[in-house]
Amino acid sequence: MSHAGLTRALKAWSTDPAELARVSVDRSGTVPDGLPDLVVFARDVDDVRRTVSYAAARGVPVVPRGAGSGVAGGAVAGAGAIVLDLSGLDRIAEIRPDDAIAVVEPGVVTADLDAAAAAHGLRYAPDPASAAFSTIGGNIATNAGGLRCVKYGVTRDAVLAVDAVLGDGTLVRTGRRTVKGVTGYDLTGLLVGSEGTLGVIVGATLRLSPLPAATATAGAFFATAEDAVAAVTALQRRGLRPSTAELLDRATLVAIDQAQGGDLHTRGQVFLLLQTDGHGAEAELAEAERVLRPLATSVETTTDPVVADRLVATRRAALPAVERHGRVLIEDIAVPRSQIAGTVAAVERIAASTGVRIFVFAHVGDGNLHPIVLAGSAPPEQVDLAVAAVFEHALSVGGTLTGEHGVGTLKRPWLAAELGDPVLDLHRRIKAVFDPAGILNPGKAI
Amino acid sequence: MSHAGLTRALKAWSTDPAELARVSVDRSGTVPDGLPDLVVFARDVDDVRRTVSYAAARGVPVVPRGAGSGVAGGAVAGAGAIVLDLSGLDRIAEIRPDDAIAVVEPGVVTADLDAAAAAHGLRYAPDPASAAFSTIGGNIATNAGGLRCVKYGVTRDAVLAVDAVLGDGTLVRTGRRTVKGVTGYDLTGLLVGSEGTLGVIVGATLRLSPLPAATATAGAFFATAEDAVAAVTALQRRGLRPSTAELLDRATLVAIDQAQGGDLHTRGQVFLLLQTDGHGAEAELAEAERVLRPLATSVETTTDPVVADRLVATRRAALPAVERHGRVLIEDIAVPRSQIAGTVAAVERIAASTGVRIFVFAHVGDGNLHPIVLAGSAPPEQVDLAVAAVFEHALSVGGTLTGEHGVGTLKRPWLAAELGDPVLDLHRRIKAVFDPAGILNPGKAI
């Protein structure tokens, strides 16, 4: 379909098949059902409003897109869609150090905001693994998490206000510049994590936090996941608040060693990376160490940034090391804290019984596990079976399908199992309020 | 109107005028336009569903009610309404220490939950001043704040899941038992703070946190509010995270001295109560003291619980001391951090120019100010003028009408000024999704 009526009024757009192919996919591996009609490179909010209004009048699907770094299929665009690329709206409009807020456009890369805040002694706390290339708009759309969330909260906790273009082209501003505020419904929270289905995020007011005065780091090995989880639970129960608590399972340690020629997997079955920060970082880590020692096979602590970087690098090496073995499905379940160890064991059983290779990383401090499924390690039906079993386990222990990546297209078949029909029905009716024509990222999230 | 068709099926209810009068008001001073028809004392969720379904079929307003401790008029019930009293649903169903969650009914008194959690070394962090008598359901309805929010977040941050009866009697469960989770829209967040207009909260899963290992306390006096606010801002910018940061202005100090025969008002113009907690509490307070010293006229620090209690008691004495002078309107604006000192000054100017006595307490760490307006201190039209001027000032500096108390009936006239018409229209359409018959707490919040 030609969209000359729209493109006439735009500053930048393309129908070049190579460009369309590039913007039709994200990092989920989901293959779209054909090329979209058009990609609009938004240069200002008017471009967004114009595109959405045009599409609403004609019932054309609009797929908003930041960096395309999503892993759940939320930005995948198929035949007949208009891709609305917001990566060009990348201005940091304001940083107000005294208010500890930033006002940004959606295409700002997360790490760039963090760096800009650092110039004022501040930081943007949410740190998804994709921070170096994902955008604030995409982080908001998925309510992205990250390593520091265990202490500093997820994206939702950092978003004070959003500007959004609704499905009829209306521009609304929700929220405020204050830390607290209860006037009206929490529409900001509703838009965060709505994966582009309720509105297109065109601006945001974000909370910044001070750079920590100090950071202390520990790396520990354990004989079992139970021991590692018991250690984390014990230190949390003592009121210690790690800023990072990451677990890698044995399969992941083996993969890292294969990639780097190291001996991690000989030192324990499970690796735990722990960090504390703030004025009491060192004292807090010393207290944490007292909790870890009796449960761990080895513990290394440091305040030396070089040693700390080496320990953190182990965690960072995990996904690339696994990806060397082929295409991966990055799952993202979260479970109550008491169910973490049992869930790691369940994933191992599922891997063994289906013959599918699965690696587990976990933001263990908040019960968010990433079972990384090696797609080519078994026949597709076995892989499907394994993924289904992982989801089923998570739901059976009171967990959720997705802790921080979003539902996208990949997890939609499981949505009703988690939410139940009455709640899913509420979702559809809320969607109709924000997007009466049903054009905003249809077929995603809900 | 007789509601025999409903009461036949109920376990407990009353049409006694004295009972109806009692349940028709809250602590806002708002006078209802007559007695409600009926009060239903819910004994289980079925009573709630039955009442709401009955009312929906007949277009009868339902006013949900906990302890009636609201200060914005959210629980005021007028002629023709059914009051749905949830205070009898007061069971703590579960406390799971390893998961750090509690599952409760809405009528549980906030302090009772906190006490029950303490038996497991945990606490319920949100601590509204009303905690000794307000209920969790009411706290959720208003997204209540409190003194500890500056470090531990507001009610919304502690609510993982809610059970709610929607306006057609449907029971839904939103959220989950996990700390993180992004499946579907954030309906939990939407219900929190909706002041009974979207659903009746009949259950909640709440996040608990460890009791702090230690607490350290400082009381400081300053020559000006500017100095006190500058001190708090400076320590926050250094990454110090006070668990309490409360400011009392000179008028309040005078009122406390009048009540208690003390000399607080001779020691400075402004009092700041500061607490730090956790493993590094003492070190953190020492660091804070270094920031306070050059700006304060005096600083007293302590880790002695008795001395700390005396300092905290000063803050606690504020409202009772002011209330000795007559009926008060408790305002609740919040402003960006850089605007706090200017707002205290603006309130003083407004008091002087209108002849209305206004006292200011502030949760200064998060910019939430309570200008306490002495209703009888000037003619009603002057009081209205003063309140209007306070709201106008808050909005003009990027602030909000209400930081933690809710809109209720009292702040509704100002709603459009803060939210704008397109956003207010969204509110009405969302309300229609949850409550098609428009019977849930009509005339409140939105």
UniProtKB/TrEMBL annotation, chains A, B:
In this chain the FAD-binding PCMH-type domain maps to 32-211
Q: Which UniProt keywords apply?
A: FAD, Flavoprotein, Oxidoreductase
The record ties this protein, via PANTHER family, to: GLYCOLATE OXIDASE SUBUNIT GLCD
Q: Which cofactor does it need?
A: FAD
Protein name in UniProt: FAD-binding protein
Superkingdom of the source species: Bacteria
Molecular function terms, GO-annotated:
FAD binding; oxidoreductase activity
